[in-house]
């Protein structure tokens, strides 16, 4: 969860000779790669086309009962394969159609990023940028998008990137840095917010965590890799047993953390989760060598827990 380009799956296959991997991905392009890998490892890779929210049904179709899976690796967000293909519309550094649908053409009528940018009103756009991009300048950017689309529809990635960059003076744009203190494009958070919105990523992540929880056997292990704070806060609170049943856009802001009550916690044991035992108390982040080998992993966070 998800298969992506298959890097994790190949590592698992090479490390554990007797393992069978159920390779889930919502992207038909990724499933094509999984099917090729399945041919190379007869019977050890079983591709599953679907979203996290469809996992429970897919396992049922395979006659796999709840509580029987040994381990789940959940790798959230966008895959490198999707980012590298300009025609998918995820990358602001490569010009392509403003698409961002992880499902590809699987659902032709599903709204894409261009639909959101050109049809939502200014307040809705600002809310998306604030909730999913944690963008402090959401109102200014939303206003600029509405003004620009009155002249021409925004249909290309670099067209949108230019609109967002135009909101800021050069001095401000120069000051924005990423986690490695490198210059970051002013539209990075806008692209993240639109991608999460279009693909309903936070709801899918929560549903995927619940599906993994149901699928794992007692003693089974869940490992989750996230790439931004919204995802990581969700995973952290899920593993602590907090009640996330009323998921909404603002559920994961730090300010709301204290207002959320635990549903699966043991108050007699200091609020420990009734369902999970953490493998480590602290989150695992990429080492310097990891980042040098794979710069996209610089913001990755890994949390692991064992099912009670």
From TrEMBL:
Catalyzed reactions per annotation: cytidine(839) in 12S rRNA + S-adenosyl-L-methionine = N(4)-methylcytidine(839) in 12S rRNA + S-adenosyl-L-homocysteine + H(+)
Compartment(s): Mitochondrion matrix
GO cellular component: mitochondrial matrix
Alphabetically ordered keywords of this record: Methyltransferase, Mitochondrion, Phosphoprotein, S-adenosyl-L-methionine, Transferase, Transit peptide
Disordered: region residues: 289-308
Keyword match Mitochondrion: yes
Alphabetical GO biological process terms: rRNA base methylation
Pfam families for this protein: Methyltransf_5
Residue ranges with Basic residues bias: 298-308
Keyword S-adenosyl-L-methionine set for record: yes
GO molecular function: rRNA (cytosine-N4-)-methyltransferase activity
InterPro entries reported for this sequence: RsmH, SAM-dep_MeTrfase_MraW_recog, SAM-dependent_MTases_sf
PANTHER family in alphabetical order: 12S RRNA N4-METHYLCYTIDINE METHYLTRANSFERASE, S-ADENOSYL-METHYLTRANSFERASE MRAW
Function of the molecule: N4-methylcytidine (m4C) methyltransferase responsible for the methylation of position C839 in mitochondrial 12S rRNA. Involved in the stabilization of 12S rRNA folding, therefore facilitating the assembly of the mitochondrial small ribosomal subunits.
Recorded family membership: Belongs to the methyltransferase superfamily. RsmH family.
Listed name of the protein: 12S rRNA N(4)-cytidine methyltransferase METTL15
């Amino acid at each position: 969860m998800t298969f992506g380009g298959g890097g994790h799956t190949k590592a698992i296959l090479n490390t554990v000779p007797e393992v069978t991997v159920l390779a889930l991905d919502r992207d038909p392009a990724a499933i094509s790669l999984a099917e090729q890998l399945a041919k190379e490892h007869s019977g050890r890779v079983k591709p599953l086309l679907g979203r996290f929210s469809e996992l429970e049904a897919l396992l049922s179709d395979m006659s796999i009962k709840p509580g029987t899976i040994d381990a789940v690796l959940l790798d959230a967000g966008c895959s490198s394969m999707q980012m590298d293909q300009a025609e998918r519309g995820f990358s602001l550094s490569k010009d392509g159609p403003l698409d961002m649908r992880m499902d590809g053409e699987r659902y032709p009528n599903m709204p894409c990023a261009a639909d959101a940018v050109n049809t939502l009103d200014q307040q809705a756009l600002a809310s998306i940028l604030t909730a999913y991009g944690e963008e402090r300048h959401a109102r200014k950017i939303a206003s600029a998008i509405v003004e620009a689309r009155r002249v021409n529809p925004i249909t290309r990635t670099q067209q949108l990137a230019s609109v967002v960059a135009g909101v800021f003076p050069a001095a401000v744009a120069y000051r924005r840095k990423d986690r490695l203190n490198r210059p970051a494009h002013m539209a990075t958070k806008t692209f993240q917010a639109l991608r999460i919105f279009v693909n309903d990523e936070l709801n899918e992540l929560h549903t995927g965590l619940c599906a993994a929880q149901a699928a794992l056997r007692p003693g089974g292990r869940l490992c989750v890799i996230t790439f931004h704070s919204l995802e990581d806060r969700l995973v952290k609170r899920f593993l602590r047993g907090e009640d996330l049943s009323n998921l909404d856009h603002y559920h994961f802001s730090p300010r709301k953390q204290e207002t959320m009550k635990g549903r699966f916690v043991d108050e007699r044991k200091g609020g420990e989760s009734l369902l999970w035992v953490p493998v480590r108390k602290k989150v695992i982040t990429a080492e310097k060598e990891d980042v040098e080998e794979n710069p996209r992993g610089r913001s990755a966070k890994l949390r692991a827990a064992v099912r009670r």
